[in-house]
């Protein structure tokens, strides 16, 4: 799989499982942990027969090619910045020169699902600031008490500010969930 980084992107605990392909290489360690940065002008070719765990930075103008037999785990701290090229392939180290690969190019953006909640803690009412996205996916805000009971639900638009009143509910901690299509984020708000 080939990734051309178009914007600075951070990954937190992303397990990347790709289509299996065959690629020639004879000397592979079983498991590899990558922490060293790949700087502009450098190319880093890393292979492991089982897994790779990467928490490094791939800078503008750098190339990182990672190949593992089972999985590649991008952990907190991994960044592939705008102008870098990162290739991640799931393939065994077989020592053969024949190759059958599956490739796909995707565009990664740094569009965020993050929401703002204020004031937090609240005296009863608080505002949810929905992110301004280009997404055409349905967007939804839900609020649950700690017993898991839904106390508020509303379809929202990108960039909307939603005023939520908890005064008819018990004081305590509430979970605010925001969904954009199949992606979601959960934050907490304290009602004192």
Helices and strands, with pairings:
Elements: E1 2-5, E2 9-11, E3 14-16, E4 29-34, E5 43-54, E6 57-58, E7 63-68, E8 71-74, E9 78-80, E10 85-90, E11 105-108, E12 116-118, E13 125-129, E14 139-145, E15 150-156, E16 161-165, E17 172-180, E18 183-191
Parallel strand pairs: 1-11, 4-5, 5-7, 5-8, 6-9, 7-10
Antiparallel strand pairs: 1-10, 2-9, 3-8, 12-13, 13-16, 14-15, 14-17, 17-18
Task: Describe the protein's architecture and organization.
By secondary structure, the protein is mainly β. It has two domains: 2-108, no CATH class; 116-191, Immunoglobulin-like (Sandwich). It is built from no helices and 18 strands. The chain has strands spanning 2-5, 9-11, 14-16, 29-34, 43-54, 57-58, 63-68, 71-74, 78-80, 85-90, 105-108, 116-118, 125-129, 139-145, 150-156, 161-165, 172-180, 183-191. The strands form four sheets. Strands 1, 3, 4, 5, 7, 8, 10 and 11 form an eight-stranded mixed β-sheet that branches. The protein is elongated and about 65 Å long. The N and C termini lie far apart (49 Å). The relative contact order is 0.19. Mean pLDDT is 77; it is low at 1-26 and 95-110.
């Amino acid at each position: 799989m080939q990734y051309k980084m178009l914007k600075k992107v951070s990954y937190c605990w992303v397990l990347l499982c790709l289509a299996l392909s065959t690629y020639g290489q004879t000397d592979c360690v079983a498991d590899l942990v990558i922490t060293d940065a790949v700087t502009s002008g450098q190319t880093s070719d890393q292979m492991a027969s089982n897994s790779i765990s990467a928490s490094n930075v791939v800078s503008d103008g750098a190339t990182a090619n990672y190949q593992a037999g089972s999985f590649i785990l991008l952990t907190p701290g991994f960044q592939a910045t705008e102008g870098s090229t990162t290739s991640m392939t799931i393939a065994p180290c077989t020592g053969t020169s024949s190759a059958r690969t599956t490739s796909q190019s995707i565009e990664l953006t740094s569009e965020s699902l993050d929401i703002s909640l204020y004031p937090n803690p609240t005296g009863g009412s608080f505002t949810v600031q929905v992110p301004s996205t280009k997404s055409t996916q349905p967007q939804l805000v839900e609020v649950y008490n700690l017993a898991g009971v839904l106390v508020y639900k509303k379809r929202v638009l990108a960039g909307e500010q939603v005023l939520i009143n908890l005064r008819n509910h018990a004081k305590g901690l509430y979970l605010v969930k925001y969904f954009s299509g199949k992606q979601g984020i959960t934050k907490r708000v304290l009602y004192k």
